[in-house]
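ok trying again, last paste got cut off:
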Amino acid sequence: MPYNNNGYNNNYNRGNYNGGNRGGNFPKYSGNAAPRKKSDDTTTNGVLLKNESAGKFLRMGYWNGTMRTDIGTVQPGMEINATSIQGAQTFGHVFSFAAMADLYEICVEIEEAMKKGEPVVPMAVVAGQKKDTILEISDGSNIGMPTGLYFVLYKGVDSGSRTNTFDMYPFDSTVVLKNYNHSTGESILEPKKLGDFKKFKTVLKESMKAFTNAQAHVVKEVSKKNNPLTALAAIGQALGVDINKSVMEATSNRSSGKSSYSRNNYNNGNGYQRSSQPGQWDNKQYNTAQQVISNEAVDINMDAATLQQVDMSQFTNQ
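nice, full thing came through this time. structure:
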């Protein structure tokens, strides 16, 4: 259970974390930004790590421009599922990009030390808008726990870096089955000590990368200049339809046509009449299929069921 948690739970005050401007041109900060509306909030569930023998879980997800984390406590040995999680006592924090990046670097250092057989030295980083939170990877020695690997969340840290309010999640090992025999059920169980810890490190890394917004910017920049028919061409290619070839054939056929103006009935007040006949276009030649694509409509019939087989790798800029 949390230690002197002072009522921290999964209803922490999210109003303190303003996601700021979410679209359009990035404004200069004036100090008088309009308050964020609740309807603008974005929440996404993430990864759930479980240590049922210890009665602990680590729930991670995303809220606006941050990663949210809850350490949950249930009865040791209890199955951790949707029902038990709903009734669990939790102790949470909202990570900024800087906190994710700093804690990830700590995880990398600790993993390298463990691979070399070196002892784990507890390492922590200060976080929170008021610098009153500490995030730590510990071996348990400084929190009165058995030797292991722990994510520790300290809250209510004073100006002297002191607090008695904290909770921790003990990283569990991942068990690998070696020489598994499906007929007899026999296998050799081999625990991977860093299994749970590596999952946590992966979440930090991916979250940190995501919240740079670099990829999102690239997608917007490319789509701004990209011909919308590129996606259509990719679908056609995946379905075995060569759109460029079809358009070239249409161009070839059409280039044998003729367009002219007739002076018939001009004296009747009808003006010049335009007519098209089989023959040649005297001065209208398209040199590339791209020119035709940008000027001609293309009809394609597709069965929606076949779209399930589209290779999404086709949706890349050529």
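cool. Residues 227-314 form one domain. The chain is about 25% helix and 25% strand.
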